[in-house]
Design brief:
The two termini are about 15 Å apart. Helix 3 packs across helix 4. This protein has a single domain, classed as Metallo-dependent phosphatases (Purple Acid Phosphatase, chain A, domain 2). Helix content is about 35%, strand content about 15%. The protein contains 7 helices and 6 strands. The longest helix is centred in the N-terminal third of the chain and has 13 residues.
C-alpha cells in the first residue's frame, strides 16, 4: 500500500489540486489528511474536493479544525492568538453545518499498518495535543523515534507530505 500524508492545506485549493495531481501520478493507494484542512481562503471547496477524491482517505484533527469547531460551538477562542481570530470566525461562517458535524468526528490520531514499515502513528502536532511543538517539547525525541520532517520522503511506501509547517509528526515503530 502506498500512502500519502497531506498536512496543513489551510483551504488552499489550487495547491491541493497540484499535490493531488502528483498523488495520481505516483499511484497512491491511501491518503491521510493530517489536520488543518481549514481555516483558509476556500474551506468548503477544499473539503468538498477531498470528499470527492477517488482514493480512500482518512482525516485527523489539526488545531485549525479545533479552533473552527470551538467557534461553531460559540466558545471563546482563547487558544487562538488575537490576529488569527477573525480568520477563524470567517471560516466558521463559511462551513456548512453538515461539514462541521463531519469534521467534529475526526480523531486526533490515526494508526495504520503499512507493509514494509509497520505501524505508523499520524498526529497533527503530538499525540496528546494538536497545538504542541514537538521539537521544543522533546528535543531528543527525533533520536529515539523515527520522526521525519514533512518535506522528506518517508519510504517508497509513504509519499511526500504537503505541509507548510516545519514538522508534521509521523511516527514509525
Amino acid at each position: 500500500m502506498r500512502v500519502a500524508a497531506l498536512y496543513d492545506i489551510h483551504g488552499n485549493l489550487p495547491a491541493l489540486e497540484a499535490v493531488l495531481e502528483e498523488i495520481r501520478r505516483t499511484q497512491v493507494d491511501h491518503v491521510v489528511v493530517g489536520g488543518d484542512v481549514i481555516p483558509g481562503p476556500m474551506p468548503c471547496e477544499t473539503l468538498k474536493r477531498l470528499v470527492d477524491l477517488e482514493i480512500p482517505l482518512q482525516f485527523i484533527l489539526g488545531n485549525g479544525e479545533v479552533a473552527v469547531l470551538e467557534q461553531l460551538a460559540g466558545r471563546e477562542l482563547t487558544a487562538v492568538p488575537e490576529p488569527y481570530r477573525p480568520i477563524i470566525r470567517w471560516t466558521a461562517q463559511q462551513i456548512d453545518p453538515e461539514y462541521g458535524q463531519w469534521v467534529a468526528g475526526w480523531p486526533k490520531t490515526l494508526c495504520i499498518e503499512v507493509s514494509g514499515l509497520g505501524k505508523i502513528l499520524f498526529c497533527h502536532a503530538t499525540p496528546q495535543n494538536e497545538n504542541d511543538l514537538l521539537p521544543a517539547l522533546h528535543p531528543s525525541l527525533a533520536s529515539r523515534l523515527s520522526l521525519r520532517e514533512s518535506t522528506h520522503p518517508l519510504s517508497p511506501a509513504v509519499t511526500r507530505t504537503c505541509s507548510s509547517t516545519a514538522w508534521s509528526p509521523v511516527f514509525v515503530w
